[in-house]
Amino acid sequence: MESALTLEPSSLRDSTPSTPPQPSTKPSDATKRAALEGRALVESTKAFTGEDVAKSWTELAIAMAVLALGTTVAAMSSYWPLRLAAALVDGLVIVRLFIVYHDFMHGALLRGSRPAKWILSAYGILVMAPPKVWKETHNYHHAHTAQIVGSHIGSFAVVTVDMWKKMRPIDRLKYRIVRNPLTILFGYVPIFMIGMCVNSLRKSVVKYWDSAVALLVNWSLTAILIWQLGFTTAFFAYLLPLMVATATGGYLFYAQHNFPDMSLQPRHEWTYAKAALESSSYMPMGPVMRWFTGNIGYHHVHHLNPQIPFYRLPETMAAMPELQTPGETSLKPWDIWKCLQLKVWDPAQKKMVGYP
Fold first, then answer.
1. DSSP per-residue letters across 141-183
2. Overall average pLDDT of the 10-17 stretch
């Protein structure tokens, strides 16, 4: 799950940070060769972009059915541990549905289907990832992964050690807030409600009208559920699943681009394929979590070619040796802790480090 984090410091939002000019910004011959090799690699992945339409619909239908069942149990059961379990499962199923939505927006599955557009657009509204701002920021993110300037668009902002030293105290505070683990844990409000919807409306109410619809639907639905069914039922059947989904998705996306072995490239060395393979992680998981997360752990493969359907990502990695040595992280507590310690990019050490 990838999100439009626009709580970025103003020095990142308004202009290019004032850093010393690079000695050269022209691509070297080696970079040009790497770009050509990268294009050839992307071309070779097109063999895996074919969609099984029946499978795509089946995966969508199964996830929606499981979500409906879980919501019913969470709303109607009188045994609170069962309600809690149903709400937690619901939250993870929402993550899987997000991957279907995400792939549809990429044109990876259910291409051109009007029913799918209506169903999944409604889903995007419900989870406060409205189609207009989501597609715009997410496509930008894919085209600029691993670049410092503009990193805050559709992703978590990244600054270098030198940039951090020159930032104003207020901008450092904003940067710390964006990267604080509590922002990820409670991502329902800061990442989705504010970062995705409110901030897009601040730019243009007309252009991002579906962000206003998303806010109105969520606030109205919350109020109606509490009024008609009581806070406890509204919490287990609606609020808690959304909180679980946004926290899980927020961390997955954070770790996919903020892990110990990640690499950021200067502009004159940057290539699309290199950024996909060196700045997007592989996150091995067991079969249950792979199902809930829609194989998004194969994130380096997805970034290399986002038109590969999520259910073909493992097949793609297994078939291509070039994709089998990515940087890795996991959902183990130690690996989560290590990822959350990464705050700024140190060009001298060529790695993410903590705050200076």
1. HHHHTT-STTTTTTS----BHHHHHHS-HHHHHHHHHHH-HHH
2. 38
